[in-house]
What does this fold into?
Amino acid sequence: MVHRTARCGLRVTRAQRGRLFGLLRSAGDVWCCVLELNRWRRQRRDAPLAGYRELCRELAAAGPGTFGELDSAGARSVLRRYSDAWFAAAARRRTGDASARFPRRKRALVPVRWYAGTFTLDGRVLRIPVARGCPPLLVRLDRDVPYPADQVRSVTLGFDAGRLYLDVTAEVPVAAYPPGQEPDPARVAGVDLGIIHPYAAAGPGGRQLLVSGRAIRAECRQHLRDRKGRSRAAARRAPRPGQRGSRRWRQHRRHQRAAETRHRRRVRQAQHEAAKTVVSWAVEHRVGTLAVGDPRGVLNLDAGRRHNQRTRDWRLGHLIRALTDKAEAAGITVALVDERGTSSTCPRCARRVPKPGGRNFNCPHCGHHGHRDLTAAANIAARNGGGTIPATAHGAGITHRRAGTHLPGVHPARRDPRRRPPSRPPAHGPLAGTGPPPTATTARGVARHPARSPQARRPTPANLQADALSRSLCTSETDIECICLTKHPRHLRCPREHQEDCWRLLKPHRSFGGSRTRRYTRLLAPAGIAVLLCTLAACGAAAQSGSTGTGATQSPGTAHTQPAAPTPPTAPSASASTGRTAPSGDPAPTSSGGGTPPSAAPAGFLSGTDSWPVAMGGAPYAEPVLGGSYGGYIGMAGSWTVSLACKGGFTAWSSANSAAANAEQADYHTGIGTGVYWFMGGPGVDPHYNGTAAEAYAWGQQQAAWTLSDMSHLPVTYPVVFMDVEQPGIAPATDNGWNSVYTSPCSGQVKTSGMSPAVNRAVLDGYSAYLTGHSSYKVGVYSSPSVWTDIFGTGTSSVVTNYYEWTYADFTSSLSRVPSGWCLTGTSTCAQFFGGMTQSSPYALMWQWSGGGGSSNGYGDFDQIDVSRTP
It folds into this structure.
């Protein structure tokens, strides 16, 4: 049997609330009387009264009715609390702890406890015992007690930050299991405690668990920031020493106590969820002993102001206590183990290595690599007799869970009022082959759902009118100077290459008045739409002829003067199929009718999108901007940077576009549905790189295994999985390890330059062999002729014979010319395949004709798909 406690709120009337506070005040009087009695005895040099029985005799001598409505059972619980505190301090002082102090502070309110037999609990109604002659006191709980009434052993009345609560303690039996499924004490798992990951567990058979606590850390940071702001705002109202303080100061103190209590409740609940996750994982794998690393020795180390704050918010004692309580209820033993050096010792060769600075552990002696916290957990298990945990590949066998999903800000439906939007849009770098990243407006710190991009705003008439006008004025690729005026800075709609110029040009315009944000609102708030005024440095006439309603054009000499007020724009043209606005400066594409897009003039071709989200309408779904049937969606299943936990790694995926593509295929029998690609890493970012083709082949197999693992939870319907082979020019490896070898995969520091095409090709061969051997999917490649030649040369390593191809050459940022087959209508721009493939090859499947190579068209990435060649 084990004891468990559940906290319940109280729903009481004003009279009941007054009587409950009377009981707490009477308990405080009992506490103060014992303190005064021992102070008087100390002055007379008599022995203190600390034993429970001695104190009860003194209480009986006081007579009934001495402490108001408080009955003798409640008063004796206060005496028990005092006696336990006194003897605990005495035991600590005998062991040499000079900081231990005996109870000495008076309290106005003291919790009161009643044991079984003195109270009555019927569902949610509790009858609290009171002194003889007083009317009965019945209160109602705000939720059902999670224990049967016959198991309840005590109830405790308390008060915290303006809230009355009741702790219900019950005696519950240890969990019972069917034969052969009970936890085995011989199966030991190590648990490493941390701040980023509250629990990291490593068990027998290479099974591992990571519980992310980034939501808890974000909650602590936001609470600290909010508390500092409140303190600064109320600092001028702070009373001097000895003063009572003003009414507003006392109100501030009440709000501060309520916020502190709310924060403690949130963190405590999140830690309980994390502990429950660990115990459930241990029960699933029949782990009977949890060896927990005890890091309490680091709490007394001075590690600087910031890290000291982190350890203060850690609440390490509650983490250990919550895990111990839940493990006992599940029949699992918990043992504390010294964790010194576990994060810097290799579990495979048992040799010390320099302590890793990030989350990755790499042993230079035997080549073992893995997560640093999981490495520490494996060493902790070995120290408690669990033996050596077998080393597994990075990411294999690891179960990821998140704690604190109830915290505000984790989900879009639970907005955190303490978070404010940034004052200006964040800067983004283009990624070749995957289109522009979405503009995130949430602060960093915790993994959250992606914020809505400007392209995904609600298609209201004002937004459609704003989008049309902004594109008509600011899509020229000539040398322009933009003065961008919007309702809010994060709605900036200038081309990416000119955004910084727009911000710089706004700064000298003092005639607008007010702050930068206020200039937008003051000038254009009545219009209700975003307006962009762009002037050509030397081509004013071209700007006037290429836009609608721009007002008077300016000469180059007046580029930095306040522009004339714009005239209202004309109604933008929209596609009949989707209702989306087409760019005003380009001829609007027209639908050919019958649900067939204009780009599908040759039979078997459809238009689709890939990577980042593109706004869609309702069913039946149509291709954004262009109209016609939606041909399909290709999203990023994963990346080597994400699998290796590198900083800056991301996944370009849109659940909405995937659902639309699958619905179009299932309900209307159109398109390819959802396909995926994997962002490939070359041999230079292989953690075990040794320059051989065999190791590169194994590196390709590892990436294929990650791909299948990431695809397991995605609604993939297209039978081809594409390898994304490119040189994106972004961190952590600008060439993805195809032409350079890095000191470590995530370091970004080049060790050597140059890579053999044969070694590069071995990565693709290993990926293809593993994917086709462990699934029914076929292998494709996403690249361009120039990138392909730069990586694989022109020899035999560059020849493609059995890979399906998806190219992004040639591409364009304009949507005025839509493709017909493999060429843009009315131009000489056509798809260029690589590795010896041509447009007539049956392996040529797709062409990313707009948005490829990091170009931006204002919407997203558009693809021409030959549906007739679907394998």
